[in-house]
Amino acid sequence: MMESERNCHCEVELNPTACQLKKKARPLFVRQIGAMRKRKKKELEFSSHTGNLALMRNYVRHFLEAFPFSERQRTLMVLGVDEACTNIIRHAYQLRDDQPIALWLEDAGDCLRMRLRDYGKQAAADDMQGRAHDLIRPGGLGLHLIRSAFDNVDYILSNRGTELVLTKKLE
Predict the structure, then answer these.
(1) What are the residues facing 45 on neighbouring strands?
(2) In this model, does residue 103 exceed pLDDT 90?
(3) Assuming Cys at both sites, which of 15, 64, 86, 116 could form a disulfide with 164, CB separation 3.0 to 4.6 Å?
(4) How many other C-beta atoms are found inside a 10 Å radius of the C-beta of residue 61?
(5) Three-state DSSP class for 69?
(6) Rounded-to-10 torsion of CA 15, 19, 24, 27
């Protein structure tokens, strides 16, 4: 548990969002946690159905509006989170569209932190390097996009699944 999470006295409110989702998709659930210093923390849970990605992107974009990032930085972060979710669907869940993905968005004071959690197949550390920029072939550049959008990219391997922690410093 992070230092800021330990010292935070929070109230939790759970509200289902009203969204139109694709067939087979689980509803999105949003949990907003407010702290005494007006730090924001939100949680979004959704199924691995690709129809949920547009809703997730809009949710992240809306969250980022409260922070002093340029439009370019916001767009890169939204694309980075989208790419990470796509990788979860493709690699951890092998295109199954009924598996859970959790996304936490939080203002950690001096930085913005986004956590993505899946419960699927873990990738080997060597597989999380991306390909060389100069190779001309489809695929493999998503990790470069994620790393260019965020200051820190950390993978936490659990007994079951992976947590990806994306951090962007507030300027």
Answers:
(1) 29, 102
(2) yes
(3) 116
(4) 14
(5) coil
(6) -10
